[in-house]
Amino acid sequence: MNKQLILDHADAAVEFNKNEAKVDWHDETLWFVRTKRDRAVAQIPEWEQLREAASQIKNHVLSNMHDLLIQFEENAIRNGIKIHWAADGDEHNAIVLDIIKQAGATRMVKSKSMLTEECHLNKYLIDNGIEVIDSDLGERIVQMRNEPPSHIVLPAIHLTKAEVGETFHEHLGTDKGATDPQYLTEAARQHLRETFLTRKVALTGVNFAIAETGGFVVCTNEGNADMGAHLADVHIAAMGFEKIIPRAEHLGVFLRLLARSATGQPITTFSSHFHRPRPGQEMHIVIVDNGRSRQLGRPDFRNSLKCIRCAACLNTCPVYRRSGGFSYHSAVAGPIGSILAPNLDMKKNADLPFASTLCGSCSNVCPVKIDIHDQLYKWRQVLMREGYGPGSKTVAMKAMATVLESPRLYRMAGKVGRGVLRFAPITVENGLNPWYNQREMPEPPAESFHDWYVNHKKA
Amino acid sequence: MKVGLFIPCYIDQFYPNVAIATLKLLEKVGCEVAYPLQQTCCGQPMANSGFEHLTGGCNENFVRNFADFDYIVSPSGSCTLHIKHHLHSTNEEAATGIRSRIYELTEFLTDVLNVTALDATFPYKVGLHQSCHGQRGLHLAQMSELVVSPPFSKPVQLLNLVNGIELIQLDRRDECCGFGGTFCVTEEAVSVKMGKDRVADHLRHGVNYITGVDVSCLMHMEGILKRANSAVKVKHIAEILTATL
């Protein structure tokens, strides 16, 4: 068994479920987002064709990654953008720090970028004496609380209004007990305005990088990426290499899918197209691998790189809604996180593909048709084959297989099992049986169907 | 038409009445049904736990038992789906044949037999639990996520043939109950919470019975109902489709 500081998913879920009212609230809040997505999708009769188109464009990207990235780099350089290549998170962080130092800055404003969460950029910069302020409202809230985001689109979705009010009271001096969203948002707005005006360096993520033009698109609802990038002397955009799309016209497919899948909006409030630095500004793009080449080389898992980070699979996941984002102990939570994380570290993330009932809802909502639940199943096979399961589980599974593949042993075990349940239920109905903890056992019949059939039908 | 009845292991051991109802239903609609006596398990408990490589013995046993039937029918969407996707054998031709001829009970009744009448009566308020593997794996009904596809439901089509039945509409018509195989014990906290929430949806709509195409989900919800001393009971769809006054 992995003994580690972070709780595995099941243990973290036990903690999360100690407050059932909060679980209900979390579940209903995210289910509401799922129903908004359903209503938005219902407005688009060609939704399934759009998904198929997006899936095929992304498949094309995965098969032509090298050429598209080179094309993107050439065009971006021609536009006056500086391109940096990072093999992993450490290289990415070092590149960003170097750019900040070159600019003579000690402070940076950052809009939402799950990649920088994946690379743990904030901690690295702070350790190197750079102050980082996240400008996305949700990210700002979790940053104040010294927490990671619990959701890739809604970073503070694990917090109630009251909890945000407390955090703001502590960090921004708002009135104690205040929960009015307008009041709290205004306080954050004033605080962030000062940040925007005084930072020389701004970092944004990238939603889509267009090979044909060398430009990129950043989608936000708050305009914070634009505010940061337009006011700063230096704009750094960080992207995983899978963000590439071949042509600008493909945005017509992806921008229609992204916000509808994410929050049920027709489109994000801001879909900002960046092509070149404005006069006097520097623009950098850091293109990051960090395990993506390895994932691209896994036939069963490569198409997880089609992901456009809409989080529809999180919102629909009945497990995520009831275990919370932190239970996934990974930058990207939920079903998509559970098929991405084992690629980064199999040992540390061996629990995640098992944090699912394989219900399949994730694959159905995915706007780029990633076969998420099939990949969860396949990761289970890889992880157990490579020995990342507890030894006791392997022993139990081997014993189970021995019994179930032998008709004679199976019938004997069935008879004994039913007998034990009928005549000595205490051996099963006790605190050591996780089924019995909150559920009654099925009532064992005297006779199996097999025996009934032999007695009634063979005569 | 020779139909091989595949009864999943936990139904055989714990819910023989479901198997008996399935057998009677198939015979009632005119099938010649045989239950191969040496059958055990489809292998899914190992496979879903990441040990598909240990299911070879179950696979060979399954092929030995079911290779000679025109159709293989089972009162379980989940086990049917597992066989459909993962049955392989040293006799791969036989395995391929089985994969293409295995049906979950309700889809067999609606799609192969085109059943349009049943002499059954069940005068109760019933909630249908759309088990995920039947729903999203075998496409037994239109899936809530695929908003723009036309509505249909094979289990509802059959339940609507039953006299006196009143089917209720759930708030979340195809959310998972949280059984999930070994998930029900390895992730007990989430599993139970999911089950409680599913059960609550049915209770809110005043059901007398919860039904479905998979006994595993029903067993999980039954355990939760019983722990809460609820009067609501679970019944597999085969039991309702064969019910008489």
What does this structure look like?
The complex is a heterodimer of chains A (459) and B (245). Chain A has helices at residues 9-16, 20-42, 47-63, 65-78, 89-102, 114-118, 121-127, 137-144, 161-172, 181-198, 224-231, 251-263, 292-296, 312-316, 320-323, 334-344, 361-365, 372-385, 391-404, 407-423, 449-457, and strands at residues 82-86, 107-110, 131-134, 201-204, 208-210, 215-220, 234-240, 244-245, 270-274, 282-288. Chain A has 459 residues and is of the alpha/beta class. Chain A has a 6-stranded parallel β-sheet with strand order 1-10-7-4-2-3, sandwiched between helices. Chain A is globular. Chain B is of the alpha/beta class and 245 residues long. Helix content of chain B is 48%, strand content 12%. Chain B contains 13 helices and 8 strands. Chain B has helices at 9-14, 16-28, 44-51, 56-66, 77-86, 92-101, 105-112, 132-137, 154-159, 183-186, 188-204, 215-227, 237-241, and strands at residues 2-5, 32-34, 71-74, 102-104, 125-129, 166-167, 209-212, 233-236. In chain B, strand 7 (209-212), helix 12 (215-227) and strand 8 (233-236) form a beta-alpha-beta unit. At the A-B interface, helix 1, helix 2, helix 17, helix 18 and helix 19 of A face helix 1, helix 2, helix 3, helix 4 and helix 8 of B.
